[in-house]
Amino acid sequence: MPILVIAEHDNAGLKAATLPAVTAAARIGAHSGAEIHVLVAGSACTGAAQAAAAIAGVAKVLVADAPHYAEQTAENEAALAVQLAQGDGAYTHILAAATTHGRNMLPRVAALCDVAQISDIVAVESPDIFVRPIYAGNALATVKSTDVLKVITVRTTAFDAAGQGGAAAVEAIAPGPDLGLSRLVGRELTVSARPELAAARVIVAGGRGLASSENYHRLLEPLADRLGAALGASRAAVDAGFVPNDCQVGQTGKIVAPQLYIAIGISGAIQHLAGMRDSQVIVAINRDAEAPIFQVADYGLVGDLFKLVPELTEALG
Amino acid sequence: MKILVPVKRVIDYNVRVRVKADGSGVDLANVKMAMNPFDEIAVEEALRLREAGIASEVVALSAGTAACQETLRTAMALGADRAILVETEAELQPLAVARLLHAIVAREAPQLVILGKQAIDDDANQTGQMLAALLGWPQATFASKLLVANGRATVTREIDGGVETLEMPLPAVVTTDLRLNEPRYATLPNIMKAKKKPLEVFKPADLAVDVAPRLQTLGVAEPPPRHAGIRVADVAELVAKLKNEAKVI
Q: CA neighbours within 13 Å on the CB side: how many for A174?
């Protein structure tokens, strides 16, 4: 029986978070030999469906094209996935990326199918055994599902992006009903020329040590520009209003694992470390030599960030 | 309008978590426990709606051992009118909690359920969504702003890359994100008053809910440690290391 991955997309194209979810599905499929299907529920979503069909390892793309899927609200999309899960040729596994989209929608699918959800997996041990972080990543639990259907969200930083070059069949399916439960009034996406935080190769992140929103932008933006980096922040910096919440890295924000993470004026609270400890190289700049961030940093620089950050930007020019 | 606020008793967020030597779980013996921080935000939001005259009653609910009474007393010290405990020694997973909440919602008929987006122990981020699904209600997760008027909720939610606003009829389930509000502290007189507020106790069997876990934990381990690296003396040394040793720039 096949495995279903629910695509995250903006109708025109696929979101990058879908690719590691397909890789996790392929790991499960490697044990069971199951085919991978991708569900694209959208409106005028041919672009997204074609992108899904080009993912290596995908056997079939199921497209439900209807106006009530345009915004991918949780209630309608989950109801459609439940129909597929309980239909003919039912699925053994349903996966989605552990992004705000997947986290929002997938537990509805699990509850309606009366099965557990396994959140945020970082490894596949077998088709029914998975590893997931708990307690802000301070512990890793290995869990075995006893349900017939496994409903899973995938930590995108823990799996490589699936490759391109596939040529899956694209099949239109009948849309489910419009439940009419919630309606999108508006969406304000941060417009930025910088890479997306979750997908960036380099991240420059600032904390309370920067002392003000003005300092955050004045000091970190030129450095991020030099490195082609995304900008991140600690919860303390978000709470203090330096930057919007979607910049937050940590247990309660985004989980990132870039090649280079530069933490500036960040003390390193447990909840922040949970979001960035899997980065390949961590640099910490902080005036407090005892700050916990230095316990995870590959390169620590103790000193006044107001002097050091402009120096670093200059040195990279 | 009645608001139901489910709250979870979890390890205090300041406590350093340790995995038990036998790998069976996390050591919770003699560890400070507290209300899940996202649930504190949920309590606060419900109280503000009552204070604004939109809600008439705030009912706190918890599921777990008898010790959860403490968490419910905290919710009542903050201002909740009364509390319900579904008492069990059994391990409760999100689906089981959602089913217990479903049964309580059927008895209490609230118009709004507000709860934290995730608990900081199992980090599952499921219960609110599961409850909404079981009830067939709309949901607004990761809320950073909540307006209730004319039987409808307008909710601004934190999403990857920005925010979005949803509108939905009540009843509905809302889960809280950090920026929704800043919770108040309980005052001493209110802590005293909370001791006299009603606290009703049920067992899962009273509600005819099967809470058997669906996930079996085979083992819990420490993540691979990340060791502290080196201290560099100045920016020049840092840049040289990043270029020549780490090769990341």
A: 4
Res B163 pLDDT > 80: yes
Interface of A with B in 142-171 (CB under 8 A): 142-147
pLDDT digits (tens, 9 = 90+) for A240-294: 999 988 899 998 889 999 999 999 999 999 889 999 999 999 999 999 999 999 9
Helix (H, G, I), strand (E, B) or coil at B20: coil
Could you list the beta-strand ranges (E) of B90-210: 112-116, 139-149, 152-159, 162-169, 172-176, 199-202
Of the candidates A112, A251, A300, the beta carbon closest to that of B232 is on A300
Is A250 annotated in some ligand binding site? yes
* Mean pLDDT, rounded, for A39-52: 98
**Cis, bond preceding B171 (omega within 30 deg of 0):** yes
**Is A13 marked as a binding-site residue?**
no
pLDDT, tens only, B92-124: 999 999 999 999 999 999 999 999 999 999 999
Give the residue among B25, B126, B215 at the shortest CA–CA distance from A138.
B25
Q: Hey, what domains does chain A have and what are their CATH numbers?
A: 3-172 (3.40.50.620), 197-315 (3.40.50.1220)
Give the bridge partners for A5, in sequence order: A38, A95
Domains belonging to chain B, first-starting first, are 2-224 (3.40.50.620)
The pTM for the full model equals 0.94
Q: How far apart are CA A302 and CA B94, in angstroms?
A: 43
